[in-house]
Amino acid sequence: MTDSTLSGASPRQPLVLRFPAILIFMACLALFTVGVTILSEGFGIGLISTSFVKTLGKTLCLCLVALAMDLVWGYCGILSLGHMAFFGLGGYAIGMWLMYERTRLIVVESMSAQALPPTPEQISDGIASQIFGVVGASEFPPIWAVAHSLPLQLAAVVLVPGLLALVFGWFAFRSRVTGVYLSILTQAMTLALALYLFQNDSGLRGNNGLSGLQNLPGLGNVPQSVVSVWFLWASALALALGFWLATWVVSGKFGSVLRGIRDDEARVRFLGYPVESYKLFVFTLSAVIAGIAGALYYPQAGIINPAELAPIASIYLAVWVAIGGRGRLYGAVIGAAFVSLLSTWFTGGQAPDIVLGNWRIQWVDWWTVLLGVSFVAVTLFAPKGIGGLFDLLADRLTPNRHGADLGPDQGALREKEASE
Amino acid sequence: MIKKLLSTAAVLTALSAPAFAQDCPIKVGVLHSLSGTMAISETTLKDTMEMLIEQQNEKGGVLGCELEAVVVDPASDWPLFAEKARELLTVHEVDVIFGNWTSVSRKSVLPVIEELNGLLFYPVQYEGEESSKNVFYTGAAPNQQAIPATDYFLEELGVESFALLGTDYVYPRTTNNILESYLKSKGIADEDIFVNYTPFGHSDWSKIVSDVVALGAGGKQVGVISTINGDANVGFYKELAAQGVSADDIPVVAFSVGEEELSGLDTSNLVGHLAAWNYFQSADTDANAEWIEAWKARMGDDRVTNDPMEAHYIGFNMWVNAVEEAGTTEVDAVREAMYGQEFPNLTGGTAVMLPNHHLAKPVLIGEIQADGQFDIISQTEEVPGDAWTDYLPESAVLKSDWQELQCGMYNTETETCVQIKSNY
Amino acid sequence: MARLLLILTLLIASLPAAAQQADAPIQQLLQEHAGQLAKPSRTKVAPTIDAIAGSGLPEAQTVLRKWQDKELWQNTETGLFIWAEEIDRDTIRGFDFAGDTALGELPDDAFEQSKPNSGVRKMIGAALVKFQLTAEDVATRRTAIDNIERDAEASHLAPLREAIETETSPTLKARAERLERLLTIRFGETEEERIAAIEGFQGDLGVDLRGALNPLVTTRLEAAEVTPDGPEVARVLKPGSEALPREDAYDLLVSEGIAKPRISRADKAAALVANIDGEAVAGIQVATLDTEDARDMAYAKLAEQGTVDPVATEPEIDETLGEYAFYEVFTGAPPAVALAAMDALNGIETRVAVNQAADLALDAISLGSIYFLAAIGLAITFGVMGVINMAHGEFIMMGAYTGFVVQQIIPDQTLSVILAIPLAFAVTFAAGVAMERLVIRWLYHRPLETLLATFGISIALQQIAKNIFGTQARPLTAPGWLDGSLVFNDIVSISYIRIAIFVLALLFLALFLLVMNRTRLGLEVRAVTQNPRMAASMGINPDRINMLTFGFGSGIAGIAGVAIGLYAKVTSEMGADYIVQSFMTVVVGGVGNIWGTLLGATLVGSLQKGIEWLNPSNTLAAQTYMILFIILFIQFRPRGIIALKGRAAEA
Q1: For residue C393, is pLDDT > 80?
Q2: Peptide bond preceding C447: is omega within 30 degrees of 0, i.e. cis?
Q3: Between chains, do A133 and B129 touch, taking CB under 8 Å as contact?
Q4: Do C620 and B195 touch (CB under 8 A)?
Q5: pLDDT at residue A32 in the model
Q6: Cα separation of A79 and A186, whole Å?
Q7: Beta strand spans in A192-312 (E)
Q8: What CA–CA distance (Å, rounded) separates B120 from B102?
Q9: In this structure, are residues C124 and C70 in contact, taking their beta carbons and an 8 Å threshold?
């Protein structure tokens, strides 16, 4: 069953029929969403607290960005250690509008009591001093030029990460930077971006970042318990669409070329394919998906600041995908959901301490160590990750009677030789 | 008649409230990072809260109820602060929260606290420019730390040329902004104010220290006002020592260096440099001696006490008194009862809670000594905390008064309330 | 109760001894100034200090010295002053000023300590100068010179000149003479004397000299209808030029009451509000006043009606400015002296710039050597073996913590550092070997997976360090002989610790070259790197070689950690601070070539310093732009500055 996800049946049938995994995935997702809604405080019986609904909604967004990561890493062999930069940029783009609009409403409201009707300059100054007063400035930086317009900022959610990926990818792929070099370069990219945003001069409130994003402008009366469910729905929808899109991209001829590039770039190039364009397309697409995921994530988190773009975040993203099993889309989703929820549980202090004689192991302190070590273990002993378990199961159900499978899927785990 | 009936009913409910309405135990949320980068500072405050709650329970609790601490760990992760605050208020249903250290974590928590009408006590010195209905700020506002320290530089040390060095984040940015305009109002020229920002954990200080030394070429007494945070101080003070800058040549006054930070440093080269706080461990009062003794008995002899701990000490005791006075832990009633609460400081004198949710506290200036403690060389009268600084044009017209005006951001010029919720 | 008794006994015990001479002349003088003595304030203390210093009493010097040392105490009951040493938190050992008689041990509750702040202490120091300049003891005389340098007064000039005559120590004499000329510049009686002193400093760069000269050339902006024709005019300014913006010029005229004020938006709005008449202001509907233009119009109408003061319009401003001349006059010194000072400063300026460039170059080299030190281990594991080790930074951290632990055990700083270096090497060598054996050897042909696995190790190691040592920065103190800095002049200087790091970096370079080119191990490493199978068939054990090479690279990282910890700080995250920079250094320099790494480190270091110099108020920006530059650089030279060619490049 899992094999059919990728190798595909007849190309003439609609995508959904060729890949029943999409249907299964969407059904699971729908079931999950409906279940949470029924149990939520906003629309249901209140068994799940609002903060946990938010956690689940955020987890769906993380699954989406993991999906994007799997697209470039699992299918195209580009280990990007800077994908959270795109995620963060998406968050900043939507955050700017949320913050601007919320503040504008407050300022207009407060100025309506004045004797003279406010001038546009007064309103703009008022908003600026509210937003930037806390970081010791009172003027709008040029970067906020279109913050007043929701459509433009929504476009920015897609365009800014997309353009960054396009420009960065164009430079990198053109000069044939591959493998670990590319990974380090992407890491440098996100580090540079994070350091830039850390500066107050960047105009995005430096270390403070953008906050209060959970309060939707104009919807101040809607309780968060309801808003959180809305966002859960939106995140689930985005994840479903993302999964469908990703499956479509990796299926068919295009997907085969991608896997070809992953397994042996030079050979594909000799066959006459424009390898750079393929890579650039996938890289940009995945950056756009990451941006959208970020735009859905941060209104649920409520605050975005440059620390979210720090290199370690992107490394965790790679960890999720690796643990889930790369080169299979559902693997990325499972990995992200599993590890991030586990992480929340362990660092939340809910996990019981382990007492070893005089030693008291607190998970808050040791969880990161466990994560690091399990990561090494996965790389060494279970390169297929959790997805590998499904393979075992699938093999058990339908034993492989066709001899050794040399299909493209298996090639994923044979990295290019180090000597290249 | 109806009115009378109503008022009788009100009296009755008021009377019966403590007896029936109070759910025992009273839960106190503690929202301090126990892991991550801020753990080192915030864990101390968690321990402080646990000690205070224990002491209160020994005294018989509050309203006849035991106090119970609900400790959560936001792990120095700012979005997690909001999540944990929501959890404290909705899942654990705590009556009050003591927590936060960094400004950004406070800004992260604000929307949640205001949405759910919680009560937060924030114990750290901060940049001001904020007054939330649901937060009591027991740390120093800029006019309780930065401005008096600058006055001290101007008047007592005769400093005429200022270097404002800070870590690049909101507290130093805002504080330096306020100081810059304050210094200008005191007649210090633009070219005599040198401002520099460095990243967190900065270690390469040679050029910046050289730049500061070079300010001496103006022929004026140079002084450094440091809002450098955390680890970066280690490298900064090492470089000062390496370049032979003594406190007599170029005094440095720090706003983020206390007893706890000094314990990670060799202070022999730093003797004479200054720090400004509302509390020093070396304060010579009986209450302080008792406090230090209790702390050391609980945590070990090598532990030190510091300013945010005293802020929690005052904040917690004021809250206890306010609850006793209001007869309930209900947030709005406690908030009303908080105004005008008085409690003796550990450094002598009395702290008063003002209607703008800030304390009136004395400002202390101490010189670093070789043993890592501070020698208090100046102590002012109680200075009322000011939410909105008088030295920035946008804020000078604002004022906060939750008792009379019911507004934390009141524009005195247009006589309107700019917003009820706080700016985050 | 027991405590009370103790205090009582102490009080009784001290009573006979406490028979202080309340009527001694010095005590009477002190009582006269009791207020300032007990709680001195810099702005008010001067008369007190002058009175004591000028009293001519033999005890005056002791009083001032003890006061300066915070050893002056006042009895809270009698108000009498004594000087005392603190024995512990609650007791002091007191002495009477008169006759210096011991008063025995006293409880400190009965006394209040006077704590002069450093501003007051400086003033006391200045007052002590005249006692100390001619003291027997060289150290005291040095203190006197120090005190003058810190807080010079005109009154110091005469005693200083006298003291120079009798000064015996040549170094002190040289300092005193220089100081005398500086004081002459500032306080000299005649202009000729001062100009001569200024000219005498030809070619000097000292901060103190510039500090003496700069106040002399201060100017004040003035405006008049005609520029006066005197020597006091420093320069004439044109409004609208860079040195004098139009607004500033006009504001000057406004502040002198010559011109009409301009009006701010807020004031204009307030004036409009004050004149609202029903629904309209000056006949204009209030609701339409939602743009600045509309408000201007309404205001102008009000002005026409005479209800508000008219404001200056742009043409009026231009006209007024045209009527006046703007010029700066010297205020710091007589014009002749000021001109001489200006000449001297101009001469100094260019040389200061040259020296600043030199200082910047030193800083850049120093930073480069730190980067080189951090990267050299990586140049071995990554450059030579091709193994990506993301835990390299954590090896640096382990080295630093090893140094910290050694220093906890062995307090002697020199010995502990000497011991820490081999120990750090041993610890990280072992860690490196273990890591190679357990993880890396299984992943030799899967570089991306090596990268991820070592990341896992890096995360785990960092957290373990946090769990063991806490998140707070730990001190690693350099031995005393590395304190201070090598000073070329007041601008160019470099701290000894940085020099030590530079030397260490050079030593490592030499060590690396030696090992790689001159030893059997190096030969075998190169053989295994180029062709492991061929090397194996020549009788080399590639596994062993790989293990040793990796251990060697890691060990060097450990030593680098000690050095970096000495210069900065030891935290669990210090490795992460250096890892990206280190990789950049190796990649920019060219993988597989130590000279490339050296060049890369120098490039990255100078670049960062250069950008910092261009944008001095923001160090963070420098790091951002440096990374951007490196990303671009790699686009154009993907194989680094020194790219391996031919067969080696394939390896």
Answers
A1: yes
A2: no
A3: yes
A4: no
A5: 94
A6: 9
A7: 210-211, 303-304
A8: 14
A9: no
Which tokens belong to B226? 């440091």
Which of A167, A175, A195 to mutate to test binding with chain C, by most C CBs within 10 Å of its CB?
A195
Q: Residue A381: which domain range?
A: 2-411
Task: Chain B: list its partners (3+ Cβ pairs within 8 Å).
Answer: A, C
Give the type of residue at B105: S
From chain B residues 349-378, the ones with a CB under 8 A of any chain C CB are 365, 367, 375-378
Shortest Cα distance, chain C CAs vs residue B155, angstroms: 7
pLDDT category of residue C567 using cuts at 50, 70 and 90: confident
**pTM given for the model:** 0.85
Instruction: Please tell me the distance in Å from C14's CA to the nearest CA on chain A.
Output: 53
Give the neighbor-by-neighbor strand order of the sheet with B398-401: B398-401, B407-411, B416-417
Q: B282-326, pLDDT tens digit by residue? A: 998 899 999 999 999 998 888 899 999 999 999 999 999 999 999
A205 confidence band (pLDDT: 50, 70, 90): confident
Q: What is the pLDDT averaged over residues B210-239?
A: 87
Nearest CA in chain C to A175: C635
The answer to whether residue A420 is domain-embedded is no
CA torsion C200-C202-C206-C211 (nearest 10°) is 70
| B304, B260 contact by CB (below 8 A) | yes
**Domain spans, chain B:** 23-141+286-361, 146-254
Whether residue A72 contacts residue A80, with contact meaning beta carbons closer than 8 Å, is answered with yes
Class of domain B23-141+286-361: alpha beta
The C-alpha atoms of residue C584 and residue C604 are separated, in whole angstroms, by 8
Question: Which tokens hold the place of B107?
Answer: 């800004």
Closest CA of chain C from A167, distance in Å: 11
Q: Angle CA(B20)–CA(B26)–CA(B28) in degrees, nearest 5?
A: 155
Q: Give yes or no on whether B23-141+286-361 and B146-254 have one common fold.
A: yes
Residue (of B362, B347, B342, B265) closest to B306 by Cα position: B347
Q: Which of C392, C459, C585 to mutate to test the interface with A (most CBs of A within 10 A)?
A: C459
Q: Give chain C's largest Cα–Cα span.
A: 107
Q: Give the C-alpha separation, C508 to C374, whole Å.
A: 11
Q: Which amino acid is at C532?
A: P
Q: Is the pLDDT of residue A162 over 60?
A: yes
The Cα–Cα gap between C366 and C612 comes to 15
Instruction: Please state which CATH class domain B146-254 belongs to.
Output: alpha beta
Bridge partners (DSSP) of residue C81 are: C74
User: CA C430, CA B192: separation in Å to the nearest integer?
Assistant: 54
CA distance C476 to B165: 24
Least CA distance to B198: which residue of chain A? A199
The string of DSSP letters for B96-120 reads EEEE--SHHHHHHHHHHHHHTT--E
Instruction: List the structure tokens of C457.
Output: 């190790």
Residue A108, min C-alpha distance to chain B (Å): 9
User: Given pLDDT bands bounded at 50, 70 and 90, which one contains residue B150?
Assistant: very high
Q: Assign C45 to helix, strand or coil.
A: coil
Name the residue of chain C whose CA is nearest to A73's CA: C448
Distance between CA atoms of B379 and C634, rounded to whole angstroms?
58
**B193, closest residue in chain C (CA to CA):** C617
Cβ atoms B52, B295 nearer than 8 A: no
Would you say the ipTM is above 0.90? Answer: no
Question: What kind and span of H or E run contains C330?
Answer: strand C325-330
Residue with tokens 């409230």: B17
Q: Please report whether residue A418 resides in a domain.
A: no
CB–CB of C348/C205 below 8 Å? yes
Work out how many domains chain A is built from and give that number.
Answer: 1
Angle between helices A179-198 and C574-589 (to 10 degrees): 130
Tell me how crowded residue B424 is: count the other CB atoms within 10 A of its CB: 25
